[in-house]
Amino acid sequence: MARKDPDLNWVPIKATSYSTIDQLFRQNLLKPSNATLSGPKGICTLQLSSDADLQVTSDQSITIAGQELIADVYRQPTHAYRALVEASPAFRQYPDLEHLYLLVRQKPYWNQQEVLEELARLTRAGRQPLREPQLVVTPTTYIATWQPAETYLRQLLNGHWFLGLTYRVTYRPAQQALHKVKVGLDLGMAPRTAVYTSTGESKLFEPTDIVPASYLVESGRLPQNQKELLTQLLYTSGREDAEKVVAWLNYYANRVTAEKLTHNRMNDRFIFVGRDHAIHDHHFSALSQYLNASRMDFLRVDPARTSQECGHCLEKTGKVVRGHRWRQIFTCPVCGVTRNAHENAAHMVLLRGEQRRRAG
């Protein structure tokens, strides 16, 4: 199923490239855009001129008219990142990353020395011209085509810049459950996602534990190129975990309600490296784009007090009952239910979504 509306993925541009943006603007290669675009709220949006030579040269760099912008272009969903690499003949990447990726994700077998040696070996060899994207599977459900003519730059109120990359996405339905259900999602870090369904089932999606690698990134011990590569591997791990949620939703759900998140609310709970970047990007952007591509009925609702009010009471009696939360456990003083607080929050999100839909 193809859509007319595109997906727009925004990736952060490094501050060292901000002077390049000024230069491109002075050269009339960036023009103010009045297009209504989704994404982070900005004070200025520019579109790349149609006659500008755009080349994606690595997972962290692009060139416009031969001038380099440093940006984390790997911070995109699998189908988009793969489409970008396949359409970029100048793209260079580190080869043979799968072994290092397995070392990073297998915490019970974590061997820091082995990780350090592999990092050093790969970065010493450098990036090479490989057309087959590393660390992403071949998409089968979502197929993307990069649209370089629709490339944007956006400046936020805090002065930071983002690069906007546009894709046309085709959804190819895979096998699905015979009886689909309505789903509520509680979004967070651990669990990454809590699910509650209209049939009363719940499921917690826990992230892969890659804490040792995260600590290594934050230790300050790594050379910059090794730190950047390891951060990309952590992002890949988080993206893989997050996309398992999307696969589950495509199989089981016919409509989905999730929390309406704010960056301020999430920033207090996120360490912004690697996996956490991926989960943040998924919760705020990729999730809605995936479900839009599959034409899923998707709605976001206010998350306030969802882990503190009893979903069981609201569903059975229609009354809002304030319960007690102690760490990961929710207890209701009225009906006596004791359950995981994230499960309860997902239940409340589902009920709020259905209430809003009935109200129109």
Task: Provide a compact summary of the structure.
The protein has 360 residues and is of the alpha+beta class.
Distance between the termini: 27 Å
> Hey, roughly how much beta strand do the residues contain?
15-25%
Name of the CATH architecture of the largest domain = 2-Layer Sandwich
* Structural domain tally: 2
* Number of separate strands: 17
The whole-angstrom Rg is 22 Å
How do the helices and strands follow one another from N- to C-terminus? EHEEEEEHHHEEEEEEHHEHHEHEEEH
Keywords: DNA-binding
Protein name: Cas12f1-like TNB domain-containing protein
GO molecular function, one term: DNA binding
Domain Cas12f1-like TNB: 294-347
Question: What does it look like?
Answer:
The structure is a single chain. By secondary structure, the protein is of the alpha+beta class. The protein folds into two domains: 7-93 and 132-171, no CATH class; 181-359, Nucleotidyltransferase, domain 5 (2-Layer Sandwich), CATH 3.30.420. 35% of the residues lie in helices and 23% in strands. It is built from ten helices and 17 strands. The chain has helices at residues 18-26, 78-86, 98-105, 112-125, 211-218, 224-252, 263-267, 275-293, 311-317, 341-359; strands at residues 7-12, 30-32, 44-48, 54-58, 61-64, 67-70, 142-146, 152-155, 161-171, 181-187, 193-197, 202-205, 253-259, 297-301, 324-326, 329-331, 338-340. The strands form four sheets. Strands 1, 2, 3, 7, 8 and 9 form a six-stranded antiparallel sheet that branches. A five-stranded mixed sheet has the order 12-11-10-13-14. Strand 16 and strand 17 (338-340) form a beta hairpin. The radius of gyration is 22 Å and the shape is globular. 39% of the residues are buried. Mean pLDDT is 91; it is low at 267-272.
